[in-house]
Structure formats: structure tokens, C-alpha cells
Amino acid sequence: MADPTQIERFIHNGRCLVAYDDDTDDRVIGWPEMAYESVRAINHLTNHGAIVPAPTLYRVLGELKGVGYLLPQALDQLGRGLSASLEQLDVTEDDPTRDPRASVATALSFLDQAAQLARDLGATLEAAQSAIGGQGYKSAED
Description:
Blueprint: E1 11-12, E2 15-16, E3 20-21, E4 27-28, H1 31-45, H2 54-88, H3 100-131
Antiparallel strand pairs: 1-2, 3-4
């Protein structure tokens, strides 16, 4: 049987689930880190009082709402993988008074909550996008 922990090394479009250093000493950046860096970049790009016209924001919100709509599936699949780890791996806890199954159950509960919040995020960003859907602008140069 293949090592079930190899999911960390699976590549999709040049990135993996968790960042790691490959055999050539290159760092392979994981998708979650890329998502974090993407939001961080938006923060940097908009931090200086830049004007963001509605058509631009409409496009940004169109992409960001997808995060809210796709994240619940990702969280569900990650949770199922965590549950499966209890069956396929010899899972331990640093604290001997804690039961790995109880820790996983707690994590799954939080993942369910996060998935609902993500669905709400997607719907809220879609509503914001719809609110400005008809706007345009004339630049000062016109």
C-alpha cells in the first residue's frame, strides 16, 4: 500500500497541498500558502488609498466570492481525510490524557462551522458584487 501521507507531495498545477523542499532544494509552495499570499497582496495593493472603481471591484469580488463557494468543499474533503487518518494511521497525541478521536471530532465541528461561514462569505460577496453591477465611470481624462 502506498504511503497515505504522500498527499503532501501531490502536485496540481505546479503546487501542492503543503509547502515542502523538494530533492533539488527548491521550495514547492502549497496552495493554502498561495491563497494567503494572494489576500496579502490585495491588502498591499489597496493599502495606499487607491481608487477602486466599481467595475474593477466587481471583477475582484467575482473571484473572491468563489473562495467562499469552494472552501466548504475543500474543508469537507480535508475533514474526511482527517477522519480517515484515524483508521489508516497510528495517530497519537502529545498529551496522553487526550483521545485522538475526540480531538478529530472537535476539529470536524470547527471545520463545519468554518464551512458555513465560508458559504455566508460567498453569498455576501456576491450580494456586494450585485450591488455595484451596473456602475461604470468616466475618468478625469475624458
